[in-house]
Amino acid sequence: MKNGNKPFVFQKRSNSIKTSNIEALFRLQTSLAANRITAIKANRITALMLVEQLSAGSQEVKAVAARELRLMAKIEKENRSFIAEGGAIPTLYRLFRSTNPVAQENALTAILNISIHDENKRKIMEENGCLELIVYVLRYGLTTEARENAAATLFSLSAVHDFKKMIMDEHGAVAALADFLMQGSPRGKKDAVMALFNLSTHPESWSQMLNMGAVSALARALRDEIVAEEAAGALTLLMRHHILAQTIASEDTAITNLVGLMKRGTPKAKENAIAALQEMCRRGGLNVIQNVAKMPMFSGLIQTILL
């Protein structure tokens, strides 16, 4: 064979290899797609079986089914739809009053995982008694994780504007979040403050937040570096109402904590602290400005705040 023909043969073989690779890739993708469809169908059937066990099984069987649904809802968005569509929500929340700590924790966590899917948030909120029992677990949960996940569930649900007032109007919800912000675990405090932040974005939130102790809890949380940033952000929103601006300003600790956060906090925490002090001065009136200006550590900064 002449040397001049070699490039032609090489090119032909190269094209053949490329075609073969493309075909192999296509077959692999087709196989993976088929496997995924099969897995989705299997998960749907499994979800329905587990819901049935929650409805009719013994207490031990229900506890196991809740655990399996918790795990399913964590790993695939399709699973969250299957579980809710299969009627799991009412069967899960009935376990919230279980005297079995593991069953209660798994049921609550399954609801939390289900709530990640936005459509399921509405189903949870529309289920009569479900919100009430989420608050119950937040207050009286048998394990720390159950209480943490109850706070996280309220955080998840409060992300939807239409549900903010419903949560605030639920008896004990705001007070329970405020208490958990003060006395919960580090992770629980984080979810509680984020839930309160979400609720603070509602224009009618200020009276509930004040009367249920959330404003005081947020002001004290400014000393806690785990939640100070979000607490300052929530207070900024709430102090758009002049009554709250005056109320918070009347507490020397709140002003002290905000000024301290300006000095020691993260960049975002400092930004939120400055914004909170700005709202306090703008909405609170002359007396508030004078109270802020009296703070020894605040000397020389008042002009910055009022810009």
TrEMBL record:
Source taxon at top rank: Eukaryota
Spans traversing the lipid bilayer: none
Residues in ARM repeats: 87-129
InterPro entries: ARM_PUB, Armadillo
Any single Pfam family the record assigns to this protein: ARM_PUB
U-box domain sequence ranges: 50-220
Protein name: U-box domain-containing protein
Species, as recorded: Zingiber officinale
